[in-house]
Amino acid sequence: MKYLPLVVANLFRKKIRTLLTIGSFAVALFLFGLLAIVRGAFGSADLAGADRIVVVNKVSIIQPLPLSYRDRMMRISGVKEVTWANWFGGVYQDERNFFAQFAIDKNTYRQMFNELEVPDDQWKAFVDDRQGAIVGTDLADRFHWKIGDRIPIKGVIFQGNWEFNLRGIYKGKRKGDDNNQFWFGWDYLDERRQFGKGQVGWYTVRVDNPDNSARISKAIDTEFANSPWETKTDTEKAFAASWLKQMGNIQFLIMSIGAVVFFTLLLVSGNTMATSVRERIRELAVLKAVGYSDRFVLLLVMAETLFIAAIGGAIGLGLAKLMTLWGNPTHGVLAIFYLPNLAILLGVVTTVTVGIVAGIIPAVSAMRLRVVDALRSV
Predict the structure, then answer these.
(1) Does residue 149 sit in helix, strand or coil?
(2) How far apart are CA 305 and CA 102, in angstroms?
(3) Which string of b and e fits 146-166 if b means at least 16 CB within 10 Å?
(4) CA nearest 312: which of 3, 32, 1, 2?
(5) pLDDT at 122 over 90
(6) Residue 247 pLDDT more than 60?
(7) Are 347 and 32 in contact (CB under 8 A)?
């Protein structure tokens, strides 16, 4: 620590250059944070239940399945619970106010997705109200809804004006759980829909043992083979992953952008430190002449690079984290909007790595300076 003033003094002799380099790190790490947020929003497969499998129509998820399948699935060995849901796809006030709306089975949905917590009194009020609805905490905050509000939604798939009474607000137990969903009773949908009565969008099944998921999935698909509504069954994690693939390889896209950003950052910071060393050749030679070791010169230059990286990285990651604390700027397009602690840790490691790589060549060059040759240079 006693050499910190020397490091700071060396860096801020060229204030504009140092500030621009710190800004480069800050922008790069801020972008890294945004990419991590987007990846988290599209990475819900990691939060899937290990003991849940999803049953959809073999043709497409937009094709329905009969409600009668529920009882037949319950008779399959290893099946503990079955629930179902339907995509609604309505509009609240404006088409830009997108959020997921599901018609759910009131009797089984809560038990199936017990990581999404609803107070008992609110759930009872929801069950007792034909037009009752439950929303996630983030969705309630977004529209400033409170329990007892009347919420009108215009049907798009299922035509008409639908009205709901907000009876409960759920909250996920885990960081990253989707708190932007809107639930209402499937029976209310089935009463008013113009087509598809007695049909559901998909089933979610809880199995007795995750190790039996493959066997039970095959048994379900075999049960309904050669029927008018054949099924395709996957674990919840595999289902979520396949859904994400329909939007493209998000993981590859994010990694590609991140690689380009950090390669550019590496060139910028490396050039900055190389220029700084060239400008101070005679000063570094003087340090060696008065007794400072080659190792000291090496560490001094590396410390300067790491200091810049640390300040810029902290600013960038801090801004990305603050952005998530200020709310969801995507207005529900990304249902999950937060920066995981693991991503912050990875950002710190990446910052230090870039700082070391960018500084190592100029630092080694400074270490190898010959005092006589350096003092001759102009």
Answers:
(1) coil
(2) 52
(3) eeeeebebebeebeeebebbb
(4) 32
(5) yes
(6) no
(7) yes
Taking each helix axis from N to C end, the angle separating 250-279 and 341-367, rounded to the nearest 10 degrees, works out to 30
Contact between 343 and 33 under an 8 Å Cβ cutoff? The reply is: yes
Question: Burial code of 103-132, b = ≥16 C-beta within 10 A, e = fewer?
Answer: bbbbebbbebbeebebeeebbebbeebeeb
Using alpha carbons, select from 210, 190, 159 the residue that is nearest to residue 51. Answer: 210
d(C-alpha 347, C-alpha 342), whole Å? 9
Distance between CA atoms of 146 and 138, rounded to whole angstroms?
12
DSSP H helices in 200-293? 213-223, 236-245, 250-279, 281-289
Q: What is the pLDDT of residues 10-37, one digit of tens each?
A: 667 778 888 888 888 888 888 888 888 8
**Model confidence, pTM:** 0.68
Q: Is residue 21 helix, strand or coil?
A: helix
Backbone torsions φ then ψ of 13, nearest 5 degrees: -70, -30
Residue 50 one-letter amino acid: A
Q: State in Å, rounded, how far the first CA of the chain is from the last one.
A: 32
Where do the structural domains in the chain lie, given as residue ranges? 4-42+249-376, 47-245
As a whole number, the mean pLDDT across the chain is 84
- Secondary structure, 3-state, 240-251: HHHHHHCCCCHH
Q: How far is the C-alpha of 142 from the C-alpha of 138, rounded, in Å?
A: 6
